[in-house]
Amino acid sequence: MAKILQIIPSLDQINGGVERGTLDIAKELIKVGFQSSLLSSGGEMAEKYKYRGVEHHELNIKKKGVFSYFILKKKIRKILNEIKPDIVHIRSRWPAFCFNKIVKQNRIPLVTTYHGTYSGTNFYPKKKYNSVMTEGDKVITISKFIDDHVRFNFPSTKSKLIQINRGIDTQYFDLNAVTEQKREFIIKTYFI
Question: Can you tell me whether residue 70 is helix, strand or coil?
């Protein structure tokens, strides 16, 4: 049974698209017979998925900086040896910056997902930092817009790109399950 490790900084944002997508994929991997592991700094959403068979490994990968970088590099080697994943899927720039080379040194296939346009594509240091998301053996883009953006800004990556349009769990986001009272609350709260 293949083991997939997804890496994301945090699972704190209950309504975060990247976080929700990571957990939806983790859940589906279990359903189709894979072993599914997550590596993050933890958070409320991580706790909700443990009972579904998804392993969660906690490591503070939210904290950025030179000192954190060296600590994280050492710890990820140990975690990779413990988990022994068949594929690593990194979903954010900071973990990609810290871990891409280590994953490749361990000869583990690497997938990254390019989720947004990330600001600063004309400023060289920022563009270089953003480019870590194109270093996967395969790079998932979440929409035609993002796919076009990556092709334009990083033309050498075209052969690695796979466009997989972002979807939603229609059972969780069921419009019919929203009561009139809840709709009114949302309209008032968010000034819609």
Answer: helix
